[in-house]
Automatic annotation (TrEMBL):
The keyword Oxidoreductase applies. This is Glutathione amide reductase. InterPro entries: FAD/NAD-bd_sf (IPR036188), FAD/NAD-binding_dom (IPR023753), FAD/NAD-linked_Rdtase_dimer_sf (IPR016156), Pyr_nuc-diS_OxRdtase (IPR001100), Pyr_nucl-diS_OxRdtase_dimer (IPR004099). Pfam families: Pyr_redox_2 (PF07992), Pyr_redox_dim (PF02852). It comes from Roseovarius indicus. Disulfide bonds join C42-C47. Residues 340-445 form the Pyridine nucleotide-disulphide oxidoreductase dimerisation domain. Gene3D superfamilies: 3.30.390.30, FAD/NAD(P)-binding domain.
Length: 449
């Protein structure tokens, strides 16, 4: 007999689990399906494990910056201990999450779900029926369509490496390549190369601050190449040869590992969305502002849905809206994105919120640009940080902060203060009037507006 539920959630990560819990708490019969142990990318293969590796390499960076300032030991990274440290978190997550879902009365199932009709899916050869579905299957590394693509390791593979390869090439110069190349180099890899096809890495971040990050990255010893398009990967015994096309010719790079960092696309290929009447395009499942798909009984959230930035807190926000509307039985709530901060967790970190300088100009806004390198400021000098600075855009007349762009220690928290100020409409003068604890990175922000 076909088992039926009020709701089946496909994807047991950030954008799915909250919805499953909300429905179960309301007394609905719910199944939560994941093809992997539950937890999702952020907790198991993304933000959280990555930042544990970065925490270890922060020690190396800190000692380097304080060299000659009274700190004498130079630490080194034990790769396998670092991966074990990461696993001390990631290994415990799926059992905890699955037990929590089961305690809430949710059926926790595993396998690749595939729609067979508007209200049915196939899972491990069996049919399951539901009145409602919620899809939150994340994104996957994009296909490059180049010879030797199968040799690319993913960020997930990188986070699981039992030993550190010595020569690592990253294809792409976005979030993953920049963050992971910094980890690899500080962990002792001798040759780390980043191959970005555009004329600069991190195209969505402020070019002046990215230029400072490039200096820091090159000082660290990462070989950062731009206008470098990867055309082919070959395996030769136990090493890889990467063919790179430049505007003025072709070169090859030999390495022990080639890592994918050219972007992620909606992970929806295997879902057979056509059978469910759920429309999608290149950027993902089409959703309304209520997170409802083109099949009114089916919702979607997270990176598989075409709405907002592909970041964990955004996925969670989309899930909350989907859950509210599912339970309400109508579109009672719409997603409204406040200014969304985003951080590249390199060392130094680069952080951004709001409009870029280029976007603000394109919109014809009148604004002052507060751009300064802050190597000489006390908060940089105290920790030996060299590549630090900010660019803050303040609208003329209204005094509203249009965008804030930061590089340096503390940027990951300062950017949240800017996001809060911008979200609540605080003006530059109101930010200046705040009293923050001193000395702290927060206490600098009044001098940035
Ligand atoms: C290396 C890396 C680092 C990142 N770092 C950050 C960061 O620092 N900060 C940040 O905000 N964001 C970061 N992100 C992005 C963030 O991880 C994602 O935006 C977020 O996890 C998306 O959540 P989601 O709900 O869409 O998917 P997830 O939480 O990943 O949940 C999707 C789940 O669906 C399952 N699934 C997929 N297909 C099927 C199927 N057919 N059937 C059943 N189950 C299926 C998957 O196994 C997965 O568990 C990072 C991403 C990566 C890859
Ligand atoms: N700190 C964070 O928030 C964080 C960290 C890691 C990942 N993520 C998430 O994961 C997603 C994927 O990260 P990513 O780094 O893979 O993608 P990305 O979109 O950040 O960067 C991809 C880069 O690859 C370049 N590129 C594309 N094709 C290329 C080619 N053939 N040769 C050379 N360069 C090429 C692009 O120009 C771009 O600069 C991000 O968009 C984000 O959603 C977030």
């Amino acid at each position: 007999m076909t088992k039926s539920y009020d709701l089946i959630v496909i994807g047991g990560g950030t954008g799915g689990n909250g919805v499953a819990r909300m429905a179960a708490n309301a007394g609905w019969s719910v199944a939560s399906i994941d093809s992997e142990p539950h937890g999702g990318t952020c907790a198991l293969r993304g933000c959280d494990p990555k930042k544990m590796l970065i925490a270890v390499t922060e020690g190396v960076d800190w000692a380097e910056n304080m060299k000659g300032k009274g700190l004498e030991a130079q630490p080194s990274v034990n790769w396998s201990d670092m991966i074990a440290f990461k696993r001390s978190f990631t290994d415990n997550m799926p059992p905890r999450i699955e037990a929590g879902l089961e305690k809430a009365g949710i059926d926790v199932l595993h396998g690749e779900a595939r729609f067979t009709g508007p209200d049915t899916i196939e899972l491990n050869g069996e049919t399951l029926r539901a009145t409602h579905f919620h899809i939150a299957t994340d994104a996957r590394p994009m296909t490059l369509n180049i010879p030797g693509e199968e040799y690319l390791a993913t960020s997930t593979d990188f986070l699981e490496l039992p030993e550190r390869p010595d020569r690592i090439a990253f294809v792409g110069g976005g979030f993953i390549a920049m963050e992971f190349s910094h980890v690899a180099k500080r962990a002792g890899a001798s040759e780390v190369t980043v191959l970005e096809m555009m004329d600069r890495p991190l195209g969505n971040f402020d070019p002046d601050l990215v230029a400072m990050l490039i200096e820091a990255t090159e000082e660290l010893g990462v070989d950062l190449r731009t206008k470098a398009k990867v055309a082919m990967i070959e395996k030769q015994s136990d090493e890889f040869v990467v063919t790179v096309e430049h505007p003025d010719g072709t070169e090859t790079i030999t390495c022990d590992l080639v890592v994918h960092g050219t972007g992620r696309v909606p992970n929806i290929d295997g879902l057979n969305l056509e059978a469910a009447g759920v429309e999608y395009a290149r950027r993902g499942i089409k959703v309304s502002n209520a997170m409802r798909t083109t099949n009114p009984a089916i919702f979607a959230a997270g990176d598989c849905a075409d709405s907002g930035l592909n970041l964990t807190p955004v996925s969670a926000a989309k899930g909350r809206v989907a859950g509210k509307n599912l339970l309400a039985g109508e579109d009672a709530r719409e997603i409204k994105y406040p200014p969304i901060p985003s951080v590249v967790f390199t060392l130094p970190m680069v952080a951004t919120v709001g409009l870029s300088e280029a976007a603000a100009r394109e919109q014809g806004l009148k604004f002052d640009v507060h751009f300064e390198k802050t190597e000489g400021w006390y908060s940089s000098m105290r920790v030996g940080a060299k590549h630090t600075g900010f660019k803050v855009l303040v609208e003329q007349g209204s005094g509203q902060v249009l965008g804030a762009h930061l590089i340096g220690p503390g940027a990951e928290e300062q950017i949240n203060l800017f996001a809060m100020a911008m979200g609540s409409g605080q003006t530059a003068n109101q930010i200046k009037a705040m009293i923050f604890a001193y000395p702290s990175y927060a206490s600098d922000i009044g001098s940035m507006v």
